[in-house]
Amino acid sequence: MASAPRGAAAGAGPIGAVRRMLSTLLDLAQTRLQLIGNEIRIEKHRALQMLAQVLLAMFCACMALLMAVGLVLALWWEQRIAVLSVLLVLFAAAAFWLQHLVRSRRAMQDHPFAASLAELQEDLRQLKETAQHAPPQEPR
Fold this sequence. Notes:
Layout (H helix, E strand, L loop, with lengths): L5 H6 L1 H63 L4 H29 L5 H20 L7
């Protein structure tokens, strides 16, 4: 009597099906973790780049404002109280406007892990669909 090859026996039956399913789930989990890791790296790089640009822009803006205030005060020294009052109102209005822009831009941004979440939701949908359409196992 010829016996079945070892590999065929290990892959057949309910135990083999469970092993294949676990292997597939582990492969899926590994792919998703790699995707999340890539997205974290991209988001970190983007955040650091944006932070550096914002800090440089703020420094340049502060220097320009300091020079502008000095120039305006030098030109209209006799009305320095009025000039400083007008500049105070202008700077306060600009600060509130910029705060509004930052808040609205932040609210419009996508979730940083939107692609990973969409893939995980699709995986769950497919697993549920497969579980619903699977034929019932016959007892042995």
